[in-house]
Specification:
alpha/beta; Alpha-Beta Plaits; 3 domains; 9-stranded mixed sheet; 5-stranded antiparallel sheet; 16 helices; about 40% helix; disordered N terminus; binds zinc ion
């Protein structure tokens, strides 16, 4: 027994383990349970390895046998874990707010249902010992105090607003997993060195007004943030406790948030197809959107011979196929034409004008630049061959938001420690985390979406996946609490 304690002392000099000669293994372990749990996640050597090593080499006649020791160790080494049933219940309860008869959820940002959901979660935050406030951009913060008060927070969170006819998990899961982490810490009387902030971002689905205000990335034109029902942003924000005129005060920096980690359903099929429990997000892809215009010549569909046509739709179709070919080149990028308007859109008239969208995404800006150079060359070739004119304008330009390597490593290490399978993958959907990456260190954790479905009433993530993701978040925050020193 003494030998075991000495091994602990030797390995973890920062922690003072005091051994009493009347100590049994159990009394020692229970006295230092929290320290040992913490150590087992911040050191490369799992605590059970140390104990096994000590046991096999000890000559202490009072040491338990391997078998009894292992049983005790199994109990001891169970890591701090969230209350899975409570998390799953909270997700189900929130799905009733804005619940649809078809089983889906609709909580459009700033709607009555969205406000009601924010109010309910704010109450749960207060019950967990958090202080709640709303910033001028309508972001709701719950703060669980840390041992140090004048240090930046470790932050997590997501959004409670949904798309029309949405599901139970997109955004909501990230908020409630963050809350569950705090509830778990509170239940165990545990505080981190840093405060923990759980953030409910305002209007993620349409404008990202909340997270853009935090990153200082808002346009100053309020018309850009009209609600889905056409209500002004001034009016929407005042309803949730914000104030558009003071939006610049919502801006935060690394002195406010040391790191932000968002847990989210994948919203794609990759994890499920790979039969993998946790996704370590490498970053949120850059996204560019363009509108292409093809101009030809309208004429009679019967009387105009084929070689004499300038058919805008034929040219546009060739360009759509070129987009698809570029999208299928090796790499992680995706390229999509999702919207097209044909004019005059009449059965017996050759189209003279086609407008279509192009959406391209990749984690690497250079790759996106390369795709656009190739596409421009294809457009020039097609225009020449079809006698049309092809032009395009940019409508959206979002820079890639890479996740910090040390946060990716922390997430992967936690997965290893919890025996959860994991893989690295980019997020090809937008998240509030991309804005937070502009002001602080950012990471994201994905859990699988059944059949990759999201933004639909059939969106589903299994309860065990929700619990696993929350546990990974919990231990990632514990790990980052050590990474960012407070003193
Ligand atoms: Zn989301």
């Amino acid at each position: 027994m003494r030998h075991l304690c000495n091994r602990f002392r030797g390995r973890f000099k920062a922690v003072s383990f005091e051994f009493d000669k009347t100590d049994t293994f159990c009394s020692f372990a229970s006295r230092y349970k929290e320290e040992i749990r913490k150590i087992s996640f911040i050191n490369e050597t799992p605590v059970n390895t140390l104990i096994s090593e000590s046991n096999s080499s000890t000559s202490d006649s009072t040491a338990p046998t391997n078998l009894t020791l292992n049983r005790r160790v199994n109990r001891l080494e169970a890591p701090l874990s969230v209350d899975g049933a409570r998390l799953v219940q909270s997700i189900a309860k929130l799905a009733n707010i804005g619940g649809l008869p078809n089983g889906g959820v609709e909580r459009i940002a700033f709607s009555q249902a969205d406000c009601q959901a924010r109010k309910v979660v704010a109450g749960w935050m207060r019950d967990a010992g958090m202080r709640v406030h709303v910033d001028p951009a309508g972001n709701l913060f719950g703060r669980y105090p840390g041992r140090y008060s004048r240090v930046p927070a470790l932050a997590t969170g997501s959004h409670l607003d949904t798309v029309p006819n949405g599901g139970h998990y997109d955004g909501t899961y990230g908020v409630l997993a963050g809350l569950e982490v705090v509830r778990t810490l509170a239940d165990n009387g545990q505080r981190l060195d840093h405060p923990v902030d759980v953030i409910i971002f305002a209007d993620e689905e349409r404008t990202m007004v909340g997270s853009k205000a935090i990153s200082g990335n808002l346009t100053h034109e309020p018309g850009a943030y009209l609600s889905a029902s056409g209500e002004s942003i001034e009016s929407c924000l005042s309803r949730v406790g914000g104030d558009w005129s003071k939006r610049s005060l919502a801006r935060l920096g690394p002195e406010d948030i040391a790191a932000f980690v968002e847990v989210h359903v994948e919203q794609g099929p990759v994890l499920e197809a790979a039969d993998t429990q946790i996704g370590v997000v490498t970053g949120i892809v850059g996204q560019r959107r363009y509108v292409f215009t093809v101009e030809g010549h309208a004429s009679h569909a019967g009387t105009t011979p084929m070689p004499m046509r300038q058919d805008a739709l034929v040219a546009a179709s060739q360009l759509v196929l070129a987009v698809n070919t570029l999208g299928n080149q090796p790499g992680d990028h995706v390229a999509t034409v999702g919207c097209m308007e044909v004019s005059p859109n009449v059965a017996n008239t050759i189209p003279d004008r086609v407008e279509f969208s192009l959406d391209i995404r990749d984690l690497d800006n250079a790759c996106l630049d390369r795709l656009m150079v190739q596409l421009r060359a294809e457009a020039a070739r097609i225009a020449k061959e079809t006698g049309t004119k092809i032009s395009f304008v940019s409508r959206l330009y979002n820079q890639p938001a890479p996740a910090k390597t040390h946060i990716q490593n922390a997430i992967a290490d936690v997965c290893e420690a919890l025996s959860l399978s994991h893989m690295s993958l980019p997020s090809r959907a937008s998240h509030d985390a991309q804005e937070l990456s502009r002001v602080t260190d950012m990471g994201m954790i994905f859990v699988p979406s059944q059949a990759g479905i999201s933004h639909a009433i059939t969106e589903y993530t299994a309860p065990e996946s929700c619990v696993q993701g929350a546990n990974v978040l919990l231990h990632t925050l514990l790990s980052l609490d050590q990474h960012y020193r407070c003193s």
